[in-house]
């Protein structure tokens, strides 16, 4: 059906499908559409328009009102639509209009229509439907309430609201579809669906099928006994086949209620309900078997029940044993107190709760066992009571045990009292420990210094001060560690206090080269660099190039050019004295001079530069002599050596022995060599260290034979 409008043109209103015998449209006469039919005698087939379905006795005014409503609704003129239909009072008309709203998905119009019908149930459903986010879901709820079930199903499928679709199938008793939807698309409601299906089957007396659905819903443990309670044989068979402990226990309780204790024991055993087994055995006075069950299973509840039975029978030893197995230490302590088992209370109280420990402590105190009472008060958390009793009884051992568990949250006055006690009794280490716990760090450090209490790494970490006095106290801790030769700990504390110079001094005493280098590197202070470099000079830096570079680097970073210059001079001396490498010595002296040029130009610096210049000149002169000999200019070389010897004095870097040795090594005349050697003996205290044994032998000289004593170990030479 179509509407025509001047503004909207042609509008689709309704689609009606024709059957095979309806051959041709004949006429449209609201509320009917007439078709030619080849199956009727009058050849006319009447079809009611969708807007008039379910409406009987339509008068002309109602007919006109419905048509005007449909037209204005189609063109979107809601005011005229409701104005046109407002005069209609037929509930059938309004219900039919609401059904049409399902097709057009006009919930606003449907709400008005259902309001005119005065159906509160549907109106409430429509209000609740507004909570659904999907339009199709809202319309589907309307469709269900106006009897359009097929449309509702399609709408729910189209918006994929499988939870509502599941409820829809349940409501229409289409359980196969409901279960299928739950299994595939609504698994969160799967168990609930099976449970509701089972209730439906139960109502229809399909017990077997209902049990299967209850099992799928995992609610069979409650409902299976109820369903089968009238036939105990079937119930037993079902329980035996299920092997479910819950069902075993239910059946056991049922058998017990009927007095069948044998069957009850059997099913309690199958359910592994040890408490109930022991309870039934006690009822049957079979205490031996009950004891075996309680011992073998370790079930605390079973042991407790059996213990109460033995206590009632005044079999206190057995009752005590099973109370202990049940970890019911309060009951065990009570039995010990009532029956004089005082020697067993201590062991039981150690495992008991604080309340029972305090009760046991009071009992032991009354019995005169003060030491154990103190310890139990302490374990029960009654520290004040424990300490008061320890002080009054002067129990030092108990005080020592208690003190190890005191914390910073303990009452400060209590901590001070314990510390004073240890001080009075000369237990200084424990006093220091308590003072550290109390946060009295300065007093603890002073005590360490005064009484030489060992300052361990752990104790030092506990003495971790805060506030404005932090650095001062850290330095005190460092000095204490330093006095105890704990150099690494002292270094750590000085570093934490920001005193890197003291830290380096402490670390230097440890001789830990790697840490000294590391500390100097991270400190970035001139004095620290110099101290580290001075220390490294005392090591074997000659065989370790990395160490040599580190020394130079530290002096350079500290801008200690005087010290660096002296180090280069020392390098030059080593090169000459040990390796006779005058080339490297010359390079080192040049570096030493370069360092001095970076200093202020004062008299001392100028004199130092002059000294190094002279040493450089001597080294160059020696090298010139060597080159002359190497080139064959022996006479010129001898002349330059004599000149060099005449220039040497105590401040020179070139040893006279090296010059004489150079002359003799290049002298061809043996007599001249002997003359040079005689002169060398006058100028050099130990000529032998400059000359090779072969040269000495060629000169004909042998060491003087001398009697070596503990007072004289000099060795002389004589010429043969």
From TrEMBL:
InterPro entries attached to this UniProt entry: TPR-like_helical_dom_sf (IPR011990), TPR_IF140/IFT172/WDR19 (IPR056168), TPR_IF140_C (IPR056156)
Chain ranges of the IF140/IFT172/WDR19 TPR domain: 76-554
Cellular compartments per GO CC: axoneme; ciliary basal body; intraciliary transport particle A
UniProt keyword list: Cell projection, Cilium, Repeat, WD repeat
Ranges of residues in domain IF140 C-terminal TPR: 563-680
Predominant cellular place of this UniProt entry's protein: other
Localization: Cell projection, Cilium
Example of a GO biological process term: intraciliary retrograde transport
Name this polypeptide is given: Intraflagellar transport protein 140
UniProt source species: Menopon gallinae
């Amino acid at each position: 059906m179509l509407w025509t409008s001047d503004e909207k043109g042609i509008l689709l209103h309704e689609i009606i499908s024709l059957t095979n015998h309806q051959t041709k449209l004949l006429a449209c006469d609201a509320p009917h559409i007439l078709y030619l039919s080849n199956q009727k005698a009058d050849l006319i087939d009447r079809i009611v328009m969708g807007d008039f379905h379910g409406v009987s006795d339509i008068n002309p005014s109602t007919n006109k009102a419905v048509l005007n409503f449909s037209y204005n609704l189609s063109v979107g003129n809601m005011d005229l639509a409701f104005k046109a239909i407002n005069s209609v009072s037929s509930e059938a008309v309004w219900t039919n209009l609401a059904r049409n709203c399902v097709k057009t998905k006009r919930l606003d119009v449907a709400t008005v229509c259902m309001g005119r019908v005065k159906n509160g149930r549907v109106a409430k459903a429509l209000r609740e439907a507004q909570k659904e986010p999907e339009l199709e879901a809202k319309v589907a709820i309307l469709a269900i309430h106006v009897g359009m079930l097929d449309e509702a199903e399609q709408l729910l499928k189209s918006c994929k609201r499988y939870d509502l679709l599941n409820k829809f199938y349940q409501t229409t008793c289409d359980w196969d579809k409901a279960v299928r939807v739950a299994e595939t698309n609504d698994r969160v409601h799967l168990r609930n669906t099976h449970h509701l299906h089972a209730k439906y089957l139960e109502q229809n007396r399909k017990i077997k099928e209902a049990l299967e659905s209850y099992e799928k819903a995992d609610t069979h443990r409650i409902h299976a006994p109820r369903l089968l309670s009238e036939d105990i044989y079937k119930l037993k068979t079902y329980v035996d086949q299920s092997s479910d402990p819950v069902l075993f226990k239910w059946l056991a309780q049922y058998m017990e209620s009927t007095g069948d204790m044998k069957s009850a024991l059997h099913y309690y055993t199958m359910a592994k309900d040890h408490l109930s087994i022991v309870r039934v055995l006690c009822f049957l006075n079979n205490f031996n078997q009950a004891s075996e069950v309680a011992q073998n299973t370790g079930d605390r509840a079973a042991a407790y029940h059996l213990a109460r039975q033995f206590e009632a029978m005044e079999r206190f030893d057995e009752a005590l044993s099973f109370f202990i197995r049940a970890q019911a230490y309060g009951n065990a302590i009570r039995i010990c107190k009532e029956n004089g088992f005082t020697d067993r209370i201590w062991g039981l109280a150690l495992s008991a709760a604080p309340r029972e420990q305090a009760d046991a402590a009071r009992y032991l105190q009354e019995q005169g066992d003060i030491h154990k009472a103190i310890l139990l008060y302490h374990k029960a958390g009654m520290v004040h009571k424990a300490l008061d009793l320890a002080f009054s009884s002067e129990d030092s051992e108990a005080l020592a045990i208690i003190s190890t568990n005191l914390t910073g949250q303990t009452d400060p006055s209590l901590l001070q009292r314990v510390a004073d006690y240890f001080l009075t009794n000369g237990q200084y280490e424990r006093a220091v420990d308590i003072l550290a716990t109390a946060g009295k760090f300065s007093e603890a450090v002073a005590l360490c210094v005064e009484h030489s209490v060992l300052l361990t790494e752990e104790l030092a970490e506990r003495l971790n001060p805060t506030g404005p006095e932090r650095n001062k106290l850290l330095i005190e801790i460092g000095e204490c560690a330093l006095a105890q030769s704990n150099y690494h700990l002292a270094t750590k504390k000085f570093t934490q206090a920001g005193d890197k110079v003291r830290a380096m001094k402490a670390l230097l005493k440890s001789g830990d080269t790697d840490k000294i280098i590391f500390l100097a590197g991270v400190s970035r202070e001139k004095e620290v660099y110099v101290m580290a470099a001075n220390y490294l000079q005392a090591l074997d830096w000659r065989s370790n190039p990395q160490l040599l570079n580190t020394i130079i680097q530290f002096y350079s970073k500290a801008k200690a050019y005087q010290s660096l210059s002296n180090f280069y001079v020392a390098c030059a001396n080593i090169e000459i004295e040990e390796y006779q490498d005058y080339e490297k010595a010359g390079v080192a002296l040049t570096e030493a001079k370069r360092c001095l040029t970076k200093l202020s130009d004062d008299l001392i610096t100028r004199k130092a530069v002059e000294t190094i210049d002279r040493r450089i000149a001597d080294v160059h002169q020696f090298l010139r002599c060597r080159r002359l000999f190497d080139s064959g200019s022996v006479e010129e070389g001898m002349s330059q050596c004599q000149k060099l010897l005449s220039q040497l004095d105590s401040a020179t870097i070139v040893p006279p022995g090296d010059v004489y040795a150079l002359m003799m090594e290049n002298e061809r005349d043996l007599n001249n060599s002997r003359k040079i050697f005689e002169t060398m003996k006058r100028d050099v205290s130990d000529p032998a260290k400059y000359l090779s044994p072969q040269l000495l032998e060629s000169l004909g000289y042998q060491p003087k034979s001398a009697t070596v004593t503990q007072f004289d170990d000099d060795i002389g030479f004589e010429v043969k």
